[in-house]
Amino acid sequence: MSLKSKKKVDFNSTNDPFAQREAEKYENPIPSRELIIQLLEHLGKPLLRKEIIASFELVTEEQLEALRRRLRAMERDGQLLFNREQRYCLVNNKDLIVGRIIGHADGFGFIRPDDGSEDLFLSPREMNPLLHNDRAMVRIVGIDKKGRRECAVVEILERNTHQIVGRLYQEDGFTYVVPDNKNISQTVLLQKDGVGGATQGQIVVAEIVEQPTKLHQPIGRIIEVLGDHLAPGMEIEMAIRTHELPHNWPSDVAAEIASLTPEVPEAAKQGREDIRHLPLVTIDGEDARDFDDAVYCKKTPKGWKLLVAIADVSHYVMANTALDNEAKNRSTSVYFPENVIPMLPEILSNGLCSLNPHVDRLCMVCELVIDAEGNVIRSRFYEAVMNSHARLTYNDVAELLPSAAAPNVAKVAQLTERYRPVIPHVLELYALFKMMRKQRELRGAMDFDTQETRIIFGQNRKIETIVPVVRNDAHKLIEEFMITANSAAARYLNGKKMPKLLRIHEGPNADKLFNLKKFLGGLGLILGGGNQPTPLDYMALIESIKDRQDAHLIQTVLLRSMSQAVYSPDSKGHFGLALEAYAHFTSPIRRYPDLLVHRAIRHTLQGKKAESFIYGIPDMVILGEHCSANERRADDATRDVVSWLKCEYMMDKIGEEFSGIISAVTSFGFFVELAEIYVEGLVHISHLGQDYFNFDPITYQLKGERTNTVYRLGDSVQVRVARVDLDEKKMDFDLVLKNESTAPKTIAKFKKKRRKK
Q1: CATH code of the domain made up of 3-90
Q2: Burial status of residue 480 (CB atoms within 10 A of its CB: 0-12, 13-18, 19 or more)
Q3: Taking a C-beta distance cutoff of 8 angstroms, is the pair 715, 724 a contact?
Q4: For the chain, what are the domain ranges?
Q5: Domains 3-90 and 654-756 belong to one CATH topology
Q6: Which of 216, 235, 304, 380 is deepest in the core (most CB within 10 A)?
Q7: What global pTM score does this model have?
Q8: Cβ(661)–Cβ(552) under 8 Å?
Q9: What does the angle CA 633 – CA 634 – CA 635 come to, to the nearest 5 degrees?
């Protein structure tokens, strides 16, 4: 049978099982990814693009261009391979692996497979044509000397580094840029006419005009000069460009929001439930500028009714608009110290979509009926118009709660007078929180005692001090209500069988669990649950060690045994929160997955079926990977900025001594977090004295062969600041022996303080 006759029998695009979804998404729909894969599977051989076109009888220019883009996207996502004969073929997942490249400063790298399996090693030779964050297809070629699975590159699927930020150097007739991103080991050689007005040592942005190959390094040209190395705010400018964070609003976005006004139009309030009379309040930090959520509850004969009202971003950000495309491109707001790159323009993030006090706002409400024991009995979602009755802060609310340890009487009186109408409702929220907290503990939701910090700036954006963030009952109250609403959203969409993005968090895999149990065994501890421990088993262990001096160490190891949370349509539950289903619903101003959840809920509220939703499961898979990657990108950028600022803060402290705690142990030394300063530096193994130290990755310790001296995670040490490198964003410490230290003995005081926190 000819290709053409086969096509007419089996693969006419009108027989596409996903035709309705495609029609919802595209004005001129084309065959779905699933149908293209079916065609290649049925014919059992690679096809030219023109053969695929003929199979589906595509004729218009719009259809041909849309198919080209779809095939390219399927290549990028590892579903298809475009071979040297210019034919498309299916990827044999048993032999070929697709993933994202992770570069290393020493020239080698790894590929992180899309299927979540263990990272694979790439030698420096294989890394030559690659840059950090590229996507590639590889095949396993063997095991290296360290027992790692080694692979070779089959195809580079996607280039994701298009510009590089770094310092300009000129020597021996060459001009090049050394990347600030230490995941990129290659320097960028500049074209002769590509230097512009930049001078030696300046921070520049270089556009890559030729990607690296096996034979030569990347070639670029300067497109922007950021300025001198130590200019105030330079660390943020560098992070934005190093991680290619979108930070300027495209002109088409500006055009779309030009008609928006600060007030909600009356027409937009029609057809919604009116809850403006209810005393909903927002509770946030003192420096918050956008308010996603407001809460209210009332006592009922059998328990409580809780309302969690969330800004209705989906009313303003319509799918497939320029505004939506930019929000998806950003995926998340990026928070730097005293600076933010928002996901949405300010008129939305701080205006129409912010639940500011005493103004009407559109919202999506999660209404929860809760029994007297704190169990959620049922929930419903609806669109509403609300008016926040007060903007409260965590610290103010904490002063008003019965749990306040030492309330400031004058401040309480002032707050009582200012917020008198809403205080009874706040106290009722607290009564509900206490009951829900008991249920949280019963199910085993984890509550690790981690330490967050806040940077306080002085003049010219120089750090004055770094202070711990104290998490009070007001923080916990809002967190509990948000978790409850997020969980209800996941259950609701599961019940409606809607395509959706869930927030999944898996427990420890077999290897991590084995290492964890071996570590605990060395301390005489046992994690219950056998080969499948539950969150309750984790929390039981945490409770049993809370009075131990090494409790912080054990908590750190327990945290590291678990997987990183990601976005996915797979219903795998949230291990850390001990929930079978969990979504992100409560922050659509700053997270794109929350906006997708709102759209799915609105779709059902309009009486529409899951099959007609604009997104299908394959779309959610791609969006989940995209949002997870951009979340990591934002975290990396923030970490870079904080590391740079802390290094700058420590530059005038070289030679000073500090007490600290070992926060990480590696084969080349250990990292120490300084007491009451909260900065981290490395004590290199070569500075540990006249001994040979062996690293045990399971017990997180270095042990001397001759002296039996042991340095392990959580140990208290005295160190001296030896070197601060702003370019590397790193600090080196020297270990101070007890008999040579002249610094105050604050280790015991520090450990006691950490345990209290």
Answers
A1: 1.10.10
A2: buried
A3: no
A4: 3-90, 97-158, 163-229, 253-499+585-635, 654-756
A5: no
A6: 235
A7: 0.82
A8: yes
A9: 90
Q: Nearest to residue 163, comparing CAs of 223, 214, 108? A: 223
Amino acid at 334: V
- Identify the pLDDT of residue 590: 96
Coil/strand/helix, residue 201? coil
Tell me which residue has tokens 């995209």.
626
**Phi/psi of residue 43, each to 5°?**
-80, -25
Looking at domain 654-756, its CATH superfamily turns out to be: Nucleic acid-binding proteins (2.40.50.140)
> pLDDT tens for residues 305-355?
999 999 999 999 999 999 999 999 999 999 999 899 999 999 999 999 999
CA distance 480 to 308: 11
Lowest mean pLDDT among 97-111, 271-285, 345-359: 97-111
Contact predicate 362/312, CB 8 Å: yes
Residue 292 burial (CB count, 10 A)? 25
Instruction: Please report, as a single letter, which amino acid is at residue 735.
Output: L
Q: Which is nearest to 282 in space by CA: 306, 263, 305, 310?
A: 310
Q: What's the rounded Cα separation, in Å, for the pair 620 and 592?
A: 12
Is the CB of residue 505 less than 8 Å from the CB of residue 563?
Answer: yes
The CATH number for 97-158, chosen from 2.40.50.140, 2.60.40.420, 3.40.190.10, 3.40.1410.10, is 2.40.50.140
As given in the structure block, the two tokens for residue 30 are 């084309």
One-letter amino acid identity for 565?
A
316: tokens are 């303003």
**Which residues, in sequence order, are bridge partners of residue 452?**
469
With tokens 């809370």, the residue in question is: 546
Q: What tens digit of pLDDT does each residue of 356-376 get?
A: 999 999 999 999 999 999 999
Retrieve residue 272's tokens: 């919604």
User: What is the side-by-side order of every strand in the sheet holding 303-311?
Assistant: 273-274, 376-387, 360-371, 303-311, 293-300, 281-284, 390-393
Do β-strands 390-393 and 281-284 pair in parallel, antiparallel, or remain unpaired? parallel
CA atoms within 13 A on the CB side of 545: 24
DSSP 683: E
User: Rounded to whole angstroms, how far apart are CA atoms 332 and 320?
Assistant: 17
In the chain, the percentage of residues whose pLDDT exceeds 70 is: 93
Task: Provide the strand spans (E) within 135-256.
Answer: 135-143, 149-158, 163-171, 174-179, 188-190, 203-210, 219-227
Rounded CA-CA distance 616/692 in Å is 57
Kindly report the backbone phi and psi dihedral angles of residue 380, in degrees, each rounded to the nearest multiple of 5, phi listed first: -145, 160
What does the alpha-carbon distance between residue 246 and residue 331 come to, in Å, rounded to a whole number? 10
CATH code of domain 163-229 = 2.40.50.700
CA distances in angstroms from 338 to 249, 334, 456, 465, 729, listed in the order given: 20, 11, 9, 14, 20
Q: How many angstroms separate the CA atoms of 298 and 367, rounded?
A: 11
Rounded to whole angstroms, the Cα distance separating 370 from 436 reads 9
Q: Which two tokens stand for residue 35?
A: 């149908």
Q: How many helices (H) and strands (E) does the chain have?
A: 22, 33
Q: How many CA atoms lie within 13 A of 339 on its CB side?
A: 17
How does pLDDT run across 80-99, given as a tens digit for each residue? 877 767 888 887 655 688 88
> Which pLDDT value is given to residue 24?
64
Distance CA 588, CA 701 (A): 43
Q: 683 phi and psi, to 5 degrees?
A: -100, 110
What single-letter DSSP state applies at residue 332?
Answer: B
* 314 within 8 A of 599, measured Cβ to Cβ: yes
